[in-house]
């Protein structure tokens, strides 16, 4: 594997965490014009609402089932509903590789709320999200019913408990998904992977599954339309996606990385494991890795 460029945050003109970067860090997005385009966008938006309502109903039924195995049933149901949502949005998904069977830690680059929908449509999994997501209308309730692990980021005293939650889920054979950058970016660079989440993979002795997501418009050109950054609301971000005349997301499942100490393999630690996954993701996307400013440094979970 060729070396991946590493840049300090100050050397990257586009920090990819501001609303204005959506208009500037990739080529303009093709959108549907005229009355036909407006009607198509309205139909997609209505479809999103319909699928969300159906998903709420499905997960409520699952919630009434026996407690044993309920989380697995919920994640499988979410996978089906996520596939419906991807179709309603008119998003085309191109997949290379496949997620490894069984439990494991899924890590990848983070652009949008759409990342989670696309990955959920690929395989049953439990997401890791900041605790504020649990308060979002509709989405928060869906997240709670599908076994999402809510974590308080940036508080070191909460790290042991957070890692313990993830470790327990991994040991039960669940696939747990995190975005180690800790924030969304709209393209051009991969953020430094935070390390604490990888400790759970080591403690549970499971595989780490790196995955990359790249968004393209109808011409195959990189687009920032799905980016959910800065002060954007969820509704504004959804509106940007449904207004597109075509959107393709390229999903590439990379080779899994063992998080095993011993068993004939060299012992590893979370720093080394995070660096391996980070390099694999950045190399596949052809993007540099941006190191956080000293004020951002820490060991947050996701």
Automatic annotation (TrEMBL):
Residues 104-216 form the Phospholipid/glycerol acyltransferase domain. The chain crosses the membrane at residues 41-64. It comes from Nakamurella leprariae. GO terms for molecular function: 1-acylglycerol-3-phosphate O-acyltransferase activity. The lineage of its organism: Bacteria, Bacillati, Actinomycetota, Actinomycetes, Nakamurellales. Keywords: Acyltransferase, Lipid biosynthesis, Lipid metabolism, Membrane, Transferase, Transmembrane, Transmembrane helix. This is 1-acyl-sn-glycerol-3-phosphate acyltransferase. The keyword Transmembrane applies. SUPFAM superfamilies: Glycerol-3-phosphate (1)-acyltransferase (SSF69593). Pathway: Lipid metabolism. It comes from the Bacteria. One of its GO terms (biological process) is phosphatidic acid biosynthetic process.
């Amino acid at each position: 594997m060729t070396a991946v460029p590493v840049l300090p945050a100050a050397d990257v003109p586009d920090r990819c965490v501001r609303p204005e970067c959506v208009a500037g860090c990739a080529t303009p997005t093709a959108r549907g014009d005229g009355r036909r385009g407006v009607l198509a966008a309205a139909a997609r938006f209505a479809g999103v609402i319909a699928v969300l309502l159906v998903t709420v109903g499905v997960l409520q039924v699952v919630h009434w089932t026996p407690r044993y195995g309920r989380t697995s049933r919920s994640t499988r149901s979410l996978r089906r509903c996520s596939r419906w949502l991807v179709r309603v949005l008119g998003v085309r998904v191109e997949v290379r590789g496949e997620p490894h069977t069984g439990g494991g830690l899924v890590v990848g680059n983070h652009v949008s709320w759409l990342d989670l929908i696309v990955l959920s449509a690929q395989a049953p999994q439990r997401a890791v999200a900041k605790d504020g997501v649990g308060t979002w209308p509709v989405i928060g309730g869906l997240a709670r019913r599908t076994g999402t692990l809510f974590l308080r980021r940036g508080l070191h005293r909460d790290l042991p408990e957070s890692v313990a939650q993830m470790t327990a889920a991994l040991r039960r054979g669940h696939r747990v998904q995190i975005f180690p950058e800790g924030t969304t970016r709209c393209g051009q660079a991969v953020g430094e992977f935070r390390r604490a989440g990888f400790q759970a993979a080591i403690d549970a002795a499971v595989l780490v599954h790196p995955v990359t997501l790249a968004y393209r418009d109808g011409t195959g050109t990189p687009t920032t339309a799905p980016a959910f950054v800065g002060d954007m609301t969820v509704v504004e971000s959804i509106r940007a996606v449904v207004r597109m005349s075509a959107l393709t997301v390229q999903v590439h499942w990379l080779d899994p990385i063992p998080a095993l100490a011993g068993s004939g393999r060299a012992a590893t630690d979370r720093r080394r494991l995070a660096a391996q996954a980070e390099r694999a993701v950045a190399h596949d996307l052809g993007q540099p890795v941006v190191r956080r400013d000293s004020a951002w440094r820490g060991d947050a979970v996701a």
